[in-house]
Structure formats: C-alpha cells, structure tokens
C-alpha cells in the first residue's frame, strides 16, 4: 500500500525529504503527593523541603503507590480513547544521574497502565489528522541539578524527585513541525480539560522529547535523534526545523546519522549532541521487587469514565451544531476550557456568532495586551452578553460597541458598570431619527461637491460619504440608514 502524499516535504540538494516525528511527552500528574510517598508537590518550594525518606532513597524505605496518581493516569487514558490495562507492572530503569538518589527510576516498560489510543489534531488549513498513541505509563521524576549558584560547586534539589509523571508516547505519525506543535497543543488542552496535568511548560509540568528522522518519501524509516526536554511549543517547532535540515545536510554530504540524544539551544536555534542514545536494553529494566503488580477492577475504570468532562473535540462539534459557529471559531474557543465556559455563559439566549466574534476579537486582544488570563477578565461574560444585546437591538452601533467594550475593560470588575449604564451616562445611544441622519448626510454632501460628482461616475465611492457621516455623528448614526440615504441622494441604485 502506497503512503499518502506529504505536502510538507523539505527541499534538499538531492531532492525532497520527508521528516518523521514521534513525541514522548512527560506530563506531571496533578496530585497533592508524589507517586510513592506523601511528600508535597507544590511548585516553587525552597530546595529540599518536599523530600520524604523514600524520595531520598534512605535504606529500608519502601514505596507505597499513590492511588490518586493511578486514577489520573486512567482518566487521561480514557480521554485519549486508549486501552486501559487492568494489570500493569512497575519496573526499575537503571541509570545514573546526580539527582537520582536511588540510581534507578521506578517506571513501567513492557506492561504499561495505558495502551494504544489516538488524538485528532487541528491544522492551520482547517483539516484534521489522527495521531496514534502508543502507550501511557507512570514513572517518577528525577530531582534537579543546579549549576549556577556557585563557581565551583553544583547543588542538588530533590523536591521533584519522585513526583508522578505520565509519559505519553505517540506513534511516528507526524510529518511536520506544525503537526508536532498542533499535537502538543491538543494534548495539553485534553489534559487541562481532564484536570490531570496543568500543562504549564514554563514550570516543567509538561515537556517533550522529540524524535526526529528524515527519509526520501516511501523509503524505510531513517535513524532518529531524540531532542530532550523541549519546554515550549515554539521551541518544539524550531528544534524540529533545525534538526531535520541538519540531518539532511549530513546525508546529502555522504555521511550517516548517529542515533543520539540532543539538546535544543533556544539562543542559537540549534540542537547539539548530549549523549549517545541508549537502546532500551541498555537501561537494564527489571520488575521492581518492592512493588506488587498494579491491578484494579473494571468498576474502578467505569467510575472514572462516568466522571469525564466534555472534551475539546466533542465541545467543538456541539458549538458548531448548537451555536452555528464555524470550525475555526469553535476550535479557538474550545482550545482552553475557561474560554469555552466564558463563551457559553455570554452566548446563552443571544446571537452566538456575534458573541464569538467579540470574544475572539476584542476580548482576546485586550487580555493579550494586558497579559491576563480569561479567568481574570475585567469584563464578565454577563456584561459582554449584555453588550451584544445592545448591539442586536440597535441601541448602539458596532463602532460604539467597540468603544463601550474598551470602557468596560478599562473600568474593570471593581466599577461593575453594565454596558447599558455606560451607554446612558455617555449618551452613546444610536441615532435612528431619519431626519437627524438626513441632515448629517446633506451637510457632508454639500461640503464635498467634487466628490459627489465623482461618486455618480464611480458608485463605489459612496462608502466614503458613509464614513464621513459616521465620523461627524461620533459613530452614533445607524449605518444602514446612513448608507441608504447616501445612495438615494447620489441617485445610485442599491
């Protein structure tokens, strides 16, 4: 069977190349305690203040599974439409890090808690693509080595040691940096909707190991390199673009790709070698002797399944069917659960399309400029909805609506003024009196006789007069009435 054509090929000296991508995403489980201890997991605590004897690998200390973490892993697996394995095994993955006190990581290898699933990603051209999920397994995080606190010494912070991670491994189904970025965006959205990971890449709660290889389309898979711990969606795109071209240049120059682990340097936009890539057998996995196999009933799974929220894809489909939104608008609104909730609160019982336009346009622009999240919006969904009502019943024009929104945004929730109060206080009600509008039109026409003559020859110029009238009335004249009167007085048929 031939492979589908890839429109994202990279041009090289010897022809076009295809990049093949698979991601291993490490998502920190949202829980109050670590995977095998009761130590806290709060971000930003003083170094080595959230470390139990288990995390520090003190002799005789035994790990005890945190069932909240198991529940979160199963919840995530269900959200990824994946196979849930009622029987799984924890293994010891042996390797040395200065901040790994045990000398091994408790992870899962041959028998993970979650098996195969899938994610549908949304691409910029409006199309979608299904990316396979190979597995999800639970494992411990390592601690952190700090090298910039002393000229001669390195410090070790074990606060992260033992923190529960979900490693979510994709199939090598992605073929461009844009697809990889879309995958991480969608995965992060799903995790946030589920409440299983906060997705904060800046704090390290979500990070990706990106596996990159190149080939001529239709050829067998090439040798891959792993780019370790990329912690932003923008950097993921940059790292892939650089690494793919690096590999292409080596191959076209007659060389071969060494399988290795590399790091991305965001300052230079380049990847650099970190270490030779170990194969799985080099890690020396074996079942952890201190932990029984992880088993749970189907009732446990069913109970979690019954509590799942409406996920982004389902919500997007509902927004399109119930509110008549385009796929593009619905996709933007459901990207974050808070944005979707805000929209629904504002749209209920009124023109949803107008609400969507105002949320995506004015509100998102204002929040972005102010550096705010939607949960901290100075404009409540109720007040935004009320503003749309004033626009819908012709109390105000669209231009005035923008002005009122800005006033509401600047005043903030402390002022608490509704849009109707602002409109009344500022005298911003739309002028619908045809006599008043006609007088304004006559005034503009009389002041511009040369343009009147031109407009009769070029009817498209009528728009200029409409703009002038709207300006002279402070945007309060009804635009439809203005347009109609301008065309009539110029003798232009609608």
Features:
Asn/Gln-tRNA_Trfase_suB/E_cat; Arc Repressor Mutant, subunit A; alpha+beta; ligase; nucleotide-binding; 3-stranded antiparallel beta sheet; 494 residues; Aspartyl/glutamyl-tRNA(Asn/Gln) amidotransferase subunit B; protein biosynthesis
Account of the protein in words:
It contains 15 helices and 16 strands. With 494 residues, the chain is of the alpha+beta class. The chain folds into 3 domains: 295 residues, no CATH class; 117 residues, no CATH class; 57 residues, Arc Repressor Mutant, subunit A (Orthogonal Bundle). Strands 1, 2, 6, 7, 10, 11, 12, 13 and 14 form a 9-stranded mixed sheet that branches. A 3-stranded antiparallel sheet has the order 5-4-15, with no helix packed on it. Helix 5 packs across helix 6 and helix 9 runs antiparallel to helix 10. The protein is elongated. The two termini are 58 Å apart. The mean pLDDT is 90.
Number of strands: 16
Distance between the termini: 58 Å
**What proportion of the residues form beta strands (DSSP E)?**
15-25%
Number of helical elements: 15
Biggest sheet descriptor: 9 strands, mixed
Mean pLDDT across the residues is: 90
How does the SSE layout of this entry go?
Blueprint: E1 10-12, E2 15-28, H1 67-79, E3 87-88, E4 91-94, E5 104-107, E6 117-122, E7 128-140, E8 144-146, E9 155-157, E10 164-170, H2 177-194, E11 206-215, E12 225-230, H3 233-252, E13 260-265, E14 270-276, E15 285-287, E16 294-295, H4 298-306, H5 312-323, H6 327-334, H7 337-347, H8 352-370, H9 381-392, H10 398-415, H11 419-426, H12 434-447, H13 449-457, H14 462-472, H15 479-490
Helix pairs in contact: 2-3, 5-6, 6-8, 7-9, 9-10, 12-14, 12-15, 14-15
């Amino acid at each position: 069977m031939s492979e589908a054509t890839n429109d994202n090929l990279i041009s090289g000296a010897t022809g076009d190349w295809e990049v093949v991508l698979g991601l291993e995403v490490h998502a920190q489980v949202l829980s109050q305690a670590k995977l095998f201890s009761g130590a806290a997991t709060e971000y930003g605590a003083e170094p080595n203040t959230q470390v139990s004897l288990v995390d520090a690998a003190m002799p005789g200390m035994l790990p005890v599974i945190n069932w909240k973490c198991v529940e979160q892993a199963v919840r995530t697996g269900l959200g990824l439409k994946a196979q849930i394995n009622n029987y799984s095994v924890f293994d010891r993955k042996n390797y040395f890090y200065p901040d790994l006190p045990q000398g091994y990581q408790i992870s899962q290898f041959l028998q993970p808690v979650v098996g195969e699933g899938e994610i549908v990603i949304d691409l910029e051209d409006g199309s979608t693509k299904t990316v396979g999920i190979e597995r999800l397994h639970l494992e411990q995080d390592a601690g952190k080595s700090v090298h910039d606190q002393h000229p001669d010494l390195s410090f070790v912070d074990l606060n992260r040691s033992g923190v529960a991670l979900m490693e979510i491994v994709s199939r090598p189904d992605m073929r461009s940096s844009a697809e990889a970025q879309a995958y991480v965006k969608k995965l992060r959205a799903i995790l946030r909707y589920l409440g299983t990971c906060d997705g904060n890449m800046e704090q390290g709660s979500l990070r990706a190991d990106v596996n990159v290889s190149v080939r001529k389309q239709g050829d067998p898979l090439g040798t891959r390199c792993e780019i370790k711990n990329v912690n932003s969606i923008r950097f993921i795109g940059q790292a892939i673009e650089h690494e793919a071209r690096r590999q292409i240049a080596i191959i076209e120059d007659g060389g071969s790709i060494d399988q290795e682990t590399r790091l991305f340097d965001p300052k230079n936009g380049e990847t650099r070698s970190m270490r030779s890539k170990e194969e799985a057998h080099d890690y020396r996995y074996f079942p952890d002797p201190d932990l029984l196999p992880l088993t749970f009933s189907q009732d446990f799974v069913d109970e979690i399944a019954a509590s799942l929220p409406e996920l982004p894809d389902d919500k997007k489909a509902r927004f399109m069917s119930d509110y008549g939104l385009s796929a593009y608008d619905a996709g933007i609104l459901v990207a974050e659960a808070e944005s979707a909730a805000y929209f629904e609160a504002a749209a209920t019982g009124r023109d949803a399309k107008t609400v969507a336009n105002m949320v995506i346009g004015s509100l998102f622009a204002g929040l972005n400029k102010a550096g705010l999240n939607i949960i901290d919006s100075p404009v409540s969904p109720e007040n935004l909805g009320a503003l749309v009502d004033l626009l819908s019943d012709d109390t105000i024009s669209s231009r005035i609506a923008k002005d009122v929104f800005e006033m509401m945004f600047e005043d903030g929730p402390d002022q608490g003024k509704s849009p109707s109060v602002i409109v009344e206080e500022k005298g911003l009600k739309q002028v619908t009196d045809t006599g008043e509008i006609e007088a304004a039109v006559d005034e503009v026409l009389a002041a511009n006789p040369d343009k009147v003559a031109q407009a009769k020859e070029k009817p498209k110029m009528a728009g200029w007069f409409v703009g002038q009238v709207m300006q002279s009335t402070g945007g309060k004249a009804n635009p439809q009435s203005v347009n109609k009167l301008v065309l009539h007085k110029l003798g232009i048929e609608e």
